[in-house]
Amino acid sequence: MTASRAGRRHDDDGAPHDEEQALVAPDRSRLFASSVEVCEGSKVIARRLRPLVAVAIAALLGGARPSYAEAPSEPVPPTAPTVTAPESPTVAEPNAGATPDGAAGDATSTPAKKRRPAKERPGGINPCMTPDPGFGLYDGWSRAISMGQLLAPKRGGVTKSGAFDLLIHFHGHEPIRKEFVKSASGIVLVGIDLGIGSGAYSSAFATPQAFERLLESIRQEMARRTGRADTTIRRLGLSSWSAGYGAIQQILRQPAGAKVDSVVLLDSLHAGYQDGSSAVAPLSLEPFVAFAQKAARGQKFLFQSYSSIVPPGYASTREVAHFLVERLGGRVRRTKRADVLGLAMDERFDRGNYHVRGYLGDDKPDHCAHLGLIKDVVRSHLNRRWAPPKALPEPRRTLPRTTKGTSKTANKERGVGRLSGSSDRASRPRTKPAPR
C-alpha cells in the first residue's frame, strides 16, 4: 500500500507535474521574452539618461557642459520681423532692429546678402554710436510717468504762470537725447521705446485715453519737480524716428491731437501700396496730409526727412514724402549739401512751416544719421517758434578768497579772509625804518 500509495503519489505527483510543465512552459517563455524586452528598454532609457547624468556630474564637479548635451539647432536665415500695415494685412512694416543704448530702429533689414564695405564718416563717428555729451542743463531720466521716461531741466524751464513746453519722442530715446541736449534750452523731453515695428506704437495709442493719461502724468511729474500745483503744458510737439511714427499716426486722429503744435519725422513715415500697384495707399497718411496742409499755411510746424532706403513690400520714406508734397500741389527740388553725421542732402521742399529734406544713403548708419537732425530742428525751429522758458545752470558755489602767501588752513584758523574784513599784512605791527 505504501509502495502503491507511493507509486500513486508518484503517479499523482508525476501527472500533474507533466501538465504543469506543459502549462508553465509557455509562461516561462513569455517571462524570458519580457525580460529581454525589459533589458532592451533599460538600455534605451540608459542611453537617454546618460546625457542628463553627465550634466549632473559635470555640474557637481564644476566642469563644463558636455557638447553632446546641447541640442544643435538648424541655422535660420536672417529675416526681418514684420508688422502688418494698418491698411493692408499683406504689407509689412519696417523692422526697427536693435541699436546702441537699447534703442531700436533699422528699416534696412533684408535677406542675407554680401556686405558692402562701411562708408567713411566725417571724424570717424558712427552715427549709430555717437559720443555721449552728457545731460548738460538737464537732469537725468525720470520714469515717474505713465509711459517712457522724462528729461527736464535741473532748474528753470517753467514760466511764471507754471507753463512748460514739451516734446515727446517715439523710438530711440537715448540716441535722441544725445543730440537734443546740444541745442535745447528749456524744452521738456519725453522718450518712449516700445519695441520693433510701427505696430507696437500704434497699438499702444489705439485709444485716446492712453495719450491723455500720458499727458496728465507728465504734468503731475512737473508739478512735483517744481513744487507748483498749477503747472500746464503750453506747447506740445511730437517727434519720431524709424517705426515710431505709428504712435503719431494714432494721436493725430484723436481729440488730443488738436493740441499738437509741431511734428518731426526723422526718416520715419512709411505706408502700404495700393492693391496690385506701386502707388502709395493714401488712407493711413490722411492725418499727416491734414497736418502738412496746416503747416504749409503757417498754423502748425512739420519737419520731415527721408533717406534712399528701399524697404521690401511697402512704400519708402522717400516715396511717402513725395506723396505728401504732391498732395499739397508742390514738387521737391534737387539740391546738393553736406549735413550732420555724413548725410548728403539731394532734395528739399519748403512751404510755410512745412520743411522736407531728402538724403542719399541706404544703409543702417545712414538711417541712424537722421537722429542727428533733431539738434538743428530744435535750435533753428522749435526754440524760435516756442521761445521756451530758459533752463538755468546750477548756481556756482563761491569760496572766500585766501590771503596771498598764506595757507588756507592757517587763514581758516586765524579767521583771515575776505569775509573777516582783515588781512595778514594789516595785522602786523608797523615799524619805522632804521636811519642809515
Task: Classify the beta-strand content into a percent band.
Answer: 5-15%
- The first-level CATH class of the domain at 100-108 and 131-386 is given as Alpha Beta
Main sheet: which strands, in order across? 1-3-2-4-5-6-9-8-7
Number of helices: 10
Helical content, roughly?
A: 25-40%
Q: What name is given to the CATH topology of the domain at 100-108 and 131-386?
A: Rossmann fold
Overall mean pLDDT score? 77
* Topology pattern, helix = H, strand = E: HEEHEHHEHEHEHEEEHHH
How far is it from the N-terminal to the C-terminal residue, by CA? 171 Å
Based on helices, strands and strand pairing, what is the structural class?
alpha/beta
Q: State the low-pLDDT regions, or none.
A: 1-36, 57-112, 416-424
CATH architecture of the domain at 100-108 and 131-386: 3-Layer(aba) Sandwich
Radius of gyration: 38 Å
Sketch the major β-sheet: 9 strands, mixed
Count of distinct strands: 9
Task: Describe the protein in words.
The protein is of the alpha/beta class. α5 (245-251) links the parallel β4 (232-241) and β5. Helices cover 34% and strands 13% of the residues. It has a 9-stranded mixed sheet with strand order 1-3-2-4-5-6-9-8-7, with helices on both faces. It has a domain at 100-108 and 131-386: Rossmann fold. Mean pLDDT is 77; it is low at 1-36, 57-112 and 416-424. α3 (198-204) packs parallel to α5. It has helices at residues 2-61, 173-180, 198-204, 208-226, 245-251, 286-296, 317-327, 364-369, 373-386, 408-414, and strands at residues 149-151, 163-170, 188-192, 232-241, 262-266, 301-306, 333-338, 344-351, 354-359. The longest helix is centred in the N-terminal third of the chain and has 60 residues, at 2-61. The relative contact order is 0.11.
